[in-house]
Write a structure and sequence with these properties.
single chain; ATP binding; hydrolase activity; Thrombin, subunit H; YaeB-like fold; hydrolase; Ser/Thr_kinase_AS; 38 strands; seven-stranded parallel beta sheet; alpha/beta; 6 domains
């Protein structure tokens, strides 16, 4: 079924590896072989254990498919022939317990090996056993795919039982017992009777014989249920054995005379006998061991150890002549303050050290050998334990951030008062007089009146005087003229619940790729990609850095991060990657997510052009105008409608063929199908209508309950009743939408039926009961009529039930090549959180919190994160205002501001991080500034124009207009924020000048005016709002830096705002925010501010670096004195 070839890993210093090929002559026609390869690949991807063979690389789509494994030179037969265990105790400590540990670990991941035998055990150079070949493994938590072959019948006699009933997990325990007897009996087994004879002749402890007898019991009900029970029983026996051995079991230690003499010299002790006694006492009472390691490389030195006692550090080795005890080679006082804490991580054997010669008859060699093996395992376990502790701390911190967010969002978001509103499609534009700093894009908000929710949705856009709410539910044309837009904690709870679910899936190994947990907690464990050769590129002028990144992404085993600074073409990279993934494997399933609709749709638009045959599913509501019109037909509701129509057409064609075959009139078929469809839609309409009436009665009851609770001042009752009331009202809103949709379908069905003839017109007016009665009459006709109309009824029942069920949406997801949605929004599709994807691509990963990213990542086997750690992280300032509350949850600023992208970039192997470095957006002078000041000069700008066509208004592509000599240049406070009147006034006048130059050049320019402060944004709006109608050559927009991230303009004007005598620069010290601010302009960058203040303000101060760059590049940049017109 497979062949193993010896190979060399070019990515790892030509290290020897094993390449396991599925035999190409069989792979295309043998489903068993394909299934076995898929199972082994899935198992080895999920399992990482020191006693399970390690997978290094794989390609299931290669011809023939292959996987690359660590090379293990020694097989079981060779090990048994050269170093056979002398008794049960040696067998169990050397290989029995390690192998049981591995089988138990696999079971915790839901995997039973089912083929545990000598042929599937190999040994590494240190003699550690490794389990191989998971080809017939059973995945307990994952049902087999429909039509997948079963492999339960494949057994290796006598290592699998004759009869195992339904207890699949018990097979590994049975196989282990047979293997143990094989090792200790010295004979090979070929039949089950050989196992029974070996058990009767077992010379080990009687208690062990009893355990093995139970594992091999003839009746499956009498056996151990799994390896957990078997290991528990054997460990209990081993513990009792050691307790019985008592003080006769010890590891012996001696000391070189020169080591004792040197120690006495260091202790200023003239009597070496006392020094030796002091050393002996300390060794016997408190010695713990570590492996001795080279100082420079950290490599273990064979047969040497570091010892720590209460007072000393020791360098020990194994006696070179007999190998039956340890020898102190040197010793010195331990004066380190961390000595006691460090000793906690050392190995303390379960028996004492004896500072003496090895007594006659004592097997010191075996003891030393056991000590080395145990120390090896201890270091592995300790490293795992420390990593697990650190990982659990991180997972706990993430869990606390979600709990903290819930607490904050339940009561700390201020309402937004509005004075008027206008409705445009699904958006409501509210005029506001003040805007809380806590407002961010995609924040859930609702409008209420008398405890009734009239409209709910998310913030889609905002300025200091306007908030746009994209309405997801509610009636948007019946709002009060004035009111408040309050925070919607119901939507927030749904989002947080999705994140909690994803976090639990990662924590408890329930994600599609259980190894996701290990990679997240310790990114250094990610395996590097094995990059392939040249590809046929689908996009012209595709930069070399993008080509390299695509190749790395295609070969990624675990995770790849792609750093994409501004203007480097992240969208083009993602598009090309998806095309190549689908070309490489047409069955590949891709989950594409982002934090914003714009980024998502830009990629989908390109993809739809390059790969029009790709089955793309865009997760969004039908009328969501945030979705690009070019891909609206790809939204899930549109796709669902086409599915239903296609199925209806296929049903009609099938039924017409059956009718023709049976001699049934074609018009009768059309009549029956149309009447059946109308009956189904009418029945559904009646159901929705009845449920609405029931909900309305429930609302009346709950509203009375609210009044009673208010009158009685019963706080708990009031809150519980209002929550229940809101839930029912939510259901009513959903039912109203359903009634609208079903009503439209019912009218369409009636229209089609009425078009058939007079009888059709009569039936179109009939009730649901009458339609059902008419159908029953048809079923009373001839056999042919009954058969055809029974099929008609079945088809219509499918339309009613399946097409509105979770399974229907799950089927749509399952047949799509690319499913795309926002990080949390994609999860709204029923059943999608049970779907599995081969690759998850996350755009704008720097904008998402760690737990937000876990929602899509937990559903995929491989992950590609695209983002920029030098851009702004998720907005969390509103969460950091209460230090006491933060402390209560054990959190700090870093808990919120360190993203998963930051963790990956900091700790992934370098081969798992790619960078896009060719910048196309900004003209070269701007691009070079951004590259030097924020990316260590790594960006290459390739735009050929230099942005000098507006020189009369913009002396250089990068121009700093300094306000240092303007009167009133200093900042002033503004409702908790900051504003600068001088800058706002100058910007207004300069825009008039720019408009004059642009009109003269017959150019239309998009100009963005941005600032870091809400107060200055309000001031800019006052200064610029009246300009809009005058500057006809300019399309103006003003906003904060945070709100403008991810967007661009022809000219970007940045208002510094800060200028004071204290040298305080505020959050302008954040280099990431400054990077976003200065990289928005394609052709021109204008900075307006007091350059003298910015040069001298306290560090950290990224504007100082910007000024230094401008000074050093006078050909591209300039500092001009700002002045008011007429002065």
């Amino acid at each position: 079924m497979a062949e193993i070839r010896k190979g060399a890993d070019v990515q790892d210093g030509l290290k020897t590896v094993a390449v396991k090929f599925v035999k190409s002559s069989r792979v295309r026609d043998d489903r068993i072989v394909r299934e076995a390869f898929a199972r082994e690949l899935a198992a080895l991807q999920a399992l990482e254990h020191p006693n399970i063979v390690k997978i290094i690389d794989f390609d299931p789509h290669h011809d023939p498919p292959y996987m690359v494994l660590e090379w293990l030179e020694n097989d079981f037969s060779g090990w048994l022939a050269t170093t056979p265990p002398r008794d049960w105790g040696e067998f169990y400590e050397r290989i029995g317990r390690p192998l049981l540990d591995a089988l138990l670990y696999a079971l915790t991941k839901g995997i039973v090996h089912r083929d545990f035998k000598p042929g599937n055990i190999l040994f590494d150079d240190q003699g550690a056993p490794k389990i191989t070949d998971f080809g017939i493994a059973k995945f307990l938590a994952t049902p087999p795919a429909p039509g997948a072959p079963t492999l339960a019948q494949y057994k290796s006699e006598p290592y699998a039982p004759f009869d195992e009933g339904n207890a699949q997990a018990a097979r590994d325990a049975y196989s282990f017992a047979v293997l143990a007897l094989r090792c200790l009996s010295g004979t090979d087994f070929t039949a089950h009777e050989h196992v029974g004879k070996a058990l009767e002749g077992f010379a080990g402890p009687a208690e062990v014989r009893d355990v093995l007898r139970r594992a091999l019991a003839a009746n499956p009900a009498d056996r151990f249920r799994d390896v957990v029970e078997l290991q528990t029983a054997l460990d209990a026996v081993r513990t009792r054995e050691r307790a019985a051995e008592g003080s006769t079991l010890a590891c012996y230690v001696s000391a070189l005379p020169q080591a004792v003499a040197k120690l006495c010299e260091r202790l200023d002790q003239s009597d070496e006998r006392r020094g030796r006694a002091l050393l002996a006492r300390d060794v016997c009472e408190s010695l713990v061991l570590f492996f001795w390691r080279e100082r420079e490389t950290g490599r273990k030195v064979p047969h040497q150890f570091l010892g720590r006692t209460a007072q000393f550090k020791l360098h020990l080795g194994i006696d070179s002549r007999l190998g039956d005890h340890l020898v102190v080679l040197s010793a010195w006082p331990d004066e380190s303050v961390e000595g006691e804490a460090h000793s906690e991580y050392g190995f303390r054997p379960p028996f004492p050290f004896a500072f003496d010669r090895v007594p006659a008859g004592v097997d010191g060699v075996a003891m030393v050998r056991w000590l080395v093996d145990a120390l090896e395992q201890h270091e592995i376990d300790d490293a795992d334990a420390r990593r697990d502790r650190k990982g659990e701390e991180l997972l706990k911190e993430w869990s606390n951030t979600l709990r903290f967010r819930q607490t904050v969002e339940d009561g700390r978001y201020a309402p937004i008062p509005y004075s008027s509103y206008r409705v445009e499609g699904n958006r409501i534009y509210f005029a506001v007089t003040s805007l809380p700093d806590t407002v961010v894009i995609e924040q859930p908000r609702i409008v209420r009146r008398d405890q009734r929710t009239l409209a709910s949705g998310v913030v889609d856009e905002f300025t200091p005087s306007m908030v746009a709410l994209w309405v997801e539910r509610g009636v948007s044309d019946s709002l009060p003229d004035q009111g408040q837009i309050v925070f919607d904690n119901r939507a927030s709870r749904i989002a947080l619940d999705r994140q909690k679910g994803a976090l639990d899936a990662v924590r408890y190994g329930r994600s599609v790729r259980p190894a996701l947990r290990d990679v997240i907690l310790d990114p250094s464990r990610a395996r590097p990609p094995n990059v392939g050769g040249d590809l046929k590129w689908e996009q012209s002028d595709f930069d070399d850095d993008k080509k390299t990144a695509v190749k790395m992404a295609l070969a990624a085993v675990d995770v790849l991060v792609v750093q994409g600074p501004p203007g480097t073409g992240k969208t083009r990279f993602i598009t090309e990657l998806v095309v190549q993934l689908l070309r490489q494997s047409p069955e590949c399933k891709v989950l594409l997510t982002s934090q914003t609709h714009v980024a998502l749709d830009n990629a989908l638009e390109r993809l739809h052009v390059l790969e029009p045959s790709a089955r793309i599913l865009r997760v969004a509501q039908r009328d969501d105008d945030r979705v690009s019109p070019k891909i609206r037909d790809l939204t899930i509701d549109h796709v669902a409608t086409r599915w239903r129509e296609d199925v209806a057409k296929a049903s009609e064609a099938f039924l017409s063929a059956i009718a023709k075959e049976l001699g049934v009139n074609r018009q009768d078929i059309a009549m029956g199908m149309s009447a059946g469809r109308l009956r189904v839609e009418s029945a559904e309409f009646d159901r929705v209508k009845a449920r609405l009436a029931e909900c309305e009665r429930r609302i009346d009851e709950l509203e009375r309950g609210v009044k009673v609770a208010q009158a009685g001042h019963v706080a708990d009752g009031y809150h519980e009743t209002t929550e229940a009331l809101e839930e029912v009202r939510d259901e009513v809103r959903n039912l109203l939408e359903q009634r609208k949709t079903v009503g439209a379908r019912r009218r369409d069905a009636a229209r089609r039926l009425a078009a058939i003839g007079e009888l059709g017109r009569q039936l179109a007016e009939a009730t649901t009961v009458d339609l059902a009665e008419w159908e029953r009459g048809l079923l009373a006709g001839s056999d042919a009529d009954r058969k055809v109309h029974a099929l008609i009824r079945l088809a219509e029942e499918w339309q009613l039930r399946f097409s509105s069920s979770r399974e229907f949406y799950a089927a749509m997801v399952a047949t799509s090549s690319v499913v795309a949605g926002t990080c949390l929004g994609f999860a709204r599709v029923p059943g999608i959180l049970s779907a599995e994807f081969d690759v998850c691509i996350v755009d704008e990963a720097s904008k998402a919190t760690a737990t937000e990213l876990l929602v899509p990542l937990s559903r995929a086997k491989r992950w590609i994160l695209v983002g920029d750690t030098q851009q702004l992280p998720p907005f969390v300032e509103d969460l950091l205002e209460d230090p006491k509350l933060l402390d209560e949850y054990g959190l700090d600023r870093e808990s919120f501001q360190t993203t998963l992208l930051d963790r990956f970039v900091a700790s992934l192997p370098p081969a798992c991080v790619a960078s896009l470095t060719t910048q196309h957006r900004m003209v070269r002078p701007i691009g070079n500034l951004i590259s030097t000041c924020f990316y260590d000069g790594k960006l290459k700008s390739v735009r050929e124009d230099d942005g000098r066509t507006l020189a009369a208004a913009l002396p250089s592509p990068v121009t700093w207009f300094t306000t240092a000599k303007l009167p009133g240049r200093h900042e002033t406070a503004s409702n908790g924020s900051i504003k600068n009147l001088a800058e706002a006034r100058f910007i207004g006048q300069w825009l008039r000048r720019l408009n004059f130059i642009a009109k003269a050049a017959s150019r239309q320019l998009r100009v963005a005016v941005i600032t870091g402060y809400a107060g200055q944004c309000i001031e800019l709006e006052r200064a610029l709002a009246h300009l809009q109608k005058d500057v006809t050559a300019l399309s103006l927009e003003w906003n904060t830096v945070d709100a403008f991230q991810g967007r661009e303009a022809d000219i970007c004007v940045y208002s510094v705002t800060r200028s004071n005598d204290r040298g305080q620069i505020g959050f302008l010290r954040d280099a990431r925010r400054m990077n976003v601010a200065l990289s928005r302009g394609r052709q021109g960058l204008v900075i307006v501010g007091d350059h003298v203040f910015c040069r001298s303000a306290r560090s950290p101060n990224p504007l100082r670096n910007v000024l230094e760059y401008i000074d050093a590049h006078p050909a591209d940049c300039s500092i001009e004195e700002a002045h008011y017109e007429g002065r």
